[in-house]
Amino acid sequence: MAEAALGLGTNLGDREAALSRAVALLEQMPGIEVTAISGLYASAPWGVEDQPDFLNLCLLIETDLGPMQLLHACKAVEAELGRQARERWGPREMDLDVLLMPGVEMDTETLAIPHPRMQERRFVMEPLAEIAPDWGLDGETVECRTAALKQRAADQICERDDSATRRFAELRAR
C-alpha cells in the first residue's frame, strides 16, 4: 500500500458535518485506510473573496489505489456531498485534493502530484504539517516549508479552529 495526503475543504452549509461525512465516505471505500486526520483550520477564501470562510483539514491515508483511481475516489466523495460546478475558487460544498504521494511525481491535465499550488496556501500546509511534518517536499520537510510560508504569507488568514475540531470529533464519534 502507498501513502498519500489529501486536503479537504468546504465553506457551505454545516461545514463540520460535511467534513465528517467526507472522511467517513473515504473510510468506506475499498483500498483506502485513513491513518491520520489533522485538526480543522478556518481560512479566508482564496481567489474569489466574496464568499463564506472555509474549514479545511488534511488526511493521511494508505491506499492500494493508483493516483488516478484516488482522484476518481475523491471526485466521487465530492459528488456524493453535492458539489456543484461553479466559478473557479468559488464556494464549495466539498473540495478534495490529492496533495502528495511520496515517490510519485506527475503532471497531467487532470492531476498533478505534488499539488501545484499547495505550497502557496497556508490552509493546506498548516494542517498537513500537523500530521506529516517530516514528509519530504521539494527537498525539505513539510514542516520547514510551512514555517517559511507562514512568514512569507502572514497576511493569509488561517487559524486552527479548536471548537470546530471538537465538533468534528464529536460527529465522527457518533
Automatic annotation (TrEMBL):
SUPFAM superfamilies reported in the protein's UniProt record:
6-hydroxymethyl-7,8-dihydropterin pyrophosphokinase, HPPK
Which major enzyme category is it?
Answer: transferase
Q: Does the keyword Kinase apply?
A: yes
Annotated 7,8-dihydro-6-hydroxymethylpterin-pyrophosphokinase domain residues: 88-99
A molecular-function term among this protein's GO annotations: kinase activity
Keyword set for this entry?
ATP-binding, Folate biosynthesis, Kinase, Nucleotide-binding, Transferase
Q: Name one GO biological process term.
A: tetrahydrofolate biosynthetic process
The protein's superkingdom reads Bacteria
- For this protein, what is the EC number? 2.7.6.3
Q: Name one Pfam family in it.
A: HPPK
Q: Which InterPro entries match?
A: Hppk, Hppk_sf
Q: Which family does it belong to?
A: Belongs to the HPPK family.
Q: What does this protein do?
A: Catalyzes the transfer of pyrophosphate from adenosine triphosphate (ATP) to 6-hydroxymethyl-7,8-dihydropterin, an enzymatic step in folate biosynthesis pathway.
UniProt protein name: 2-amino-4-hydroxy-6-hydroxymethyldihydropteridine pyrophosphokinase
- The record lists the organism as Hyphomonas atlantica
